[in-house]
Amino acid sequence: MATFQRTLILTGIVTLAAVMRLWGIGTAPAALQYDEAVNGMTAERILVGEHPVMLMLNDGREPLHFYLVSASIAVLGKTPGAVRLPFVLCSISLVLAVWLLARELFGHKVGWLAALLCAGTLWPVYLGRYGTRSVLFALVTALALFYAARAWRSGAIRCWVAAGFLFGVSYYTYPVNLFVLPAIMMIIAGAALQRSGAMRENGRGIAVMIAVTVLLALPMWLYRGAYLTQSFSRPQHLAVFYAGQSPLDVVKTLVVQTVLLLRMFLLRGDANPLHNIPGRPVFDAAMAIPFFWGLVAALALRRYRKRGLTVMAWTMVFLLPTFLSKSAPHFLRAVGILPVLFIFPAL
To answer: N- to C-terminal Cα distance for the chain?
Structure first.
């Protein structure tokens, strides 16, 4: 297929994504919700010369999105649209990032289909229109995974550095970033068990990526360590497991959380109207066959298996934030799966 045709397809997909996210963004939703209002007020403080510390407010919010909102307000003024615009742009950019990652892993056709699904599926659209910082995490990690996948294929150190930089930046976006390094380590362990030559060839690059990630994340870790009460009081409050649970209660909780998570894809999703049309699943019934068939293809077909296992490992790790917490399924806490989710039905 000619480059012009490929560009035309991608342009059409991004245009669809932009229309669905930008249309009436200043008036729909009709009013700013709490988190959006906090974003706007904190951005105003930044614009008058204040520079809040790394974990802002009592629940310890990472800072990057506040600075993005302040830049938007500085240009467009104090309007709902200006508060939401950075997240809308992140949601549109996520479509491009998903295209890059899926294409790198599985080729052009899967890339276009994954991008199209990301453009039109309600979940990423909703996150963009409702000014939530979680979509920033999805964008940054999708780009990080793309550079890591390209680095694995090409061996280019600059790609490993880019992946490490973006993984490090993710620690300044949204609390599920605590699972980034565990996900990386799980994928590396899986590659090591396969004893592939590529693992040996890329050992230096992987070490560089992890070093850059740790270097960038270190200031946030040190700050969290100095303010442990602020950093971890909310996760402890939200945790579905707690000290003193009987073994039977633990088993019941495991079963209930598993059912809630599994059904979120096709039966019943997040009930919170700030995250989702209440109860709407990730995919509708028409997507059931492509979704399940893609899962089977990713894990069972030999030509996909290694890459499919990598995508599945990332998905499993980033379902943990909502699996381990109350109000499951929680579409903000599950946002880490968005970079790879649409690859399954695309396959």
So the answer is: 19
Is 94:138 a contact under the CB 8 Å cutoff?
Answer: yes
- For residue 40, the tally of other CB atoms under 10 A from its CB is 22
Rounded mean pLDDT, 35-61: 82
35 in helix, strand or coil? helix
Confidence of residue 244 (pLDDT cuts 50, 70, 90): confident
Q: How far is Cα 151 from Cα 32, in angstroms, rounded to an integer?
A: 41
Phi and psi at residue 312, to the nearest 5°: -65, -40
CA dist 160 → 147, 192, 344 (Å):
7, 18, 25
Closest by alpha carbon to 234, among 25, 58, 30, 29?
A: 58
CA–CA dist 10, 115 (Å, integer): 8
Residues facing 239 on adjacent strands: 325
Residue 232 scores a pLDDT above 60: no
User: What ranges in 227-332 are assigned the alpha helix state H?
Assistant: 228-238, 247-263, 288-300, 305-323
Q: Residues 71, 115: contact at Cβ < 8 Å?
A: no
> And the tokens for 285?
């019934």
